[in-house]
Amino acid sequence: MALAPYASDPNRSRGRRHPEPAAPTRTGFQRDRDRIVHSTAFRRLVYKTQVFLNHEGDLFRTRMTHSLEVAQLGRSIARPLGLNEDLVEAVALAHDLGHTPFGHAGQDALNDCMQAHGGFEHNLQSLRVVDQLEERYPSFDGLNLCFETREGILKHCSRANAQRLEQREPGGVGRRFLDRTQPSLEAQLCNLADEIAYNAHDIDDGVRSGLITLEQLEEVPLFERFRQQTQREHPQLQGRRLLYESIRRMLSAQVYDVIDATQEALRASGVDSADAARVANPLVCFSPGMRNQSSQLKQFLLRNLYRHPQVVETTGRAKQVVRDLFEAYVADPAQMGGGFDARGDRERAVADYIAGMTDRFAAREHERLTGRPLLP
């Protein structure tokens, strides 16, 4: 399929930090996708969780299944827009590589531990993984991905960290946070596909867990519209099939809304190149009505799932695991493996080591070091 003029063209990529000859059968973005899939950090995502911790059930989403869902949604939207599907897939598969064990609870705890040492941002950590921490190649650290893939991975970045990135890599991936410009349209698309995916699967996982009910979801217009539509067409449907079909229709409606709203935004903006899109306002978007309904869904999930007493209690113990691990490794770096104990930047080395852990490894390490089993 031909790319639109505003899409990211791999033949016009800003390239890799370490020059490499082109692959004979793959574009640069396809090669990035393959490197990500074969990385150690990607394999670990299968045992890193979203909302529910790894021991709470085999069927809840993990970071890997979430990343695959984001990639699928992203490609479904990219194709009719004429955007580069391979770049969308690469960014989607890599965007959570820097996430800690125990979801956002682990990230918050590690950020608290690192406050006096530069803090911890999971998007910046994902960039560290692909730029430095993966050890697979003889001539460089990291995966040596294309600029456009790295740019998309760094979804958010504080100004202070952007300035540090700019000092190390002038005009690089940190620059847009200082100039207040946009990433590629493919990166913008991944950001929105991420939101669509986690809202939908958190409904699924929340109902499966018993923490939220279909009756509670009646107050969410975006979901309730499709539940009612499903029941009108299939009056006999109930339980899990009713939930799945309602979510499927909700997802489809959001995908088509993004396609239509983005096409309109692109026409109105008049952008005619990938570089022009970077200096325009954000262009990959929901319609105003869908944006409002998506925000209502997010607020519902915040009140009823993420702040549910059972989730809060479990994530509280997960935060304690991360805090205890950080304290133990800083006090005795020899307890870490993989050469992290030999690094001079002790606190950052500890943060890198903990961030790379799966849920179950972190729980086992905590029990080994403290003698206290906080998590099953």
Automatic annotation (TrEMBL):
Q: Which UniProt keywords apply?
A: Hydrolase
The region called Disordered is annotated at 1-32
Q: Which CDD domains match?
A: HDc
Q: Which GO terms describe its biological process?
A: dGTP catabolic process
The record's InterPro entries line, in alphabetical order, gives: dGTPase, dGTPase-like, dNTPase_2, HD/PDEase_dom, HD_domain, PHydrolase_assoc_dom
PROSITE patterns, per database record: HD
What would be an example GO MF term here? dGTPase activity
**Family listed:** Belongs to the dGTPase family. Type 2 subfamily.
Q: Which PANTHER family match?
A: DEOXYGUANOSINETRIPHOSPHATE TRIPHOSPHOHYDROLASE-LIKE PROTEIN, DEOXYNUCLEOSIDE TRIPHOSPHATE TRIPHOSPHOHYDROLASE
Q: What is this protein called?
A: Deoxyguanosinetriphosphate triphosphohydrolase-like protein
- Organism for this UniProt entry: Ramlibacter henchirensis
Q: What is the lineage of its organism?
A: Bacteria, Pseudomonadati, Pseudomonadota, Betaproteobacteria, Burkholderiales
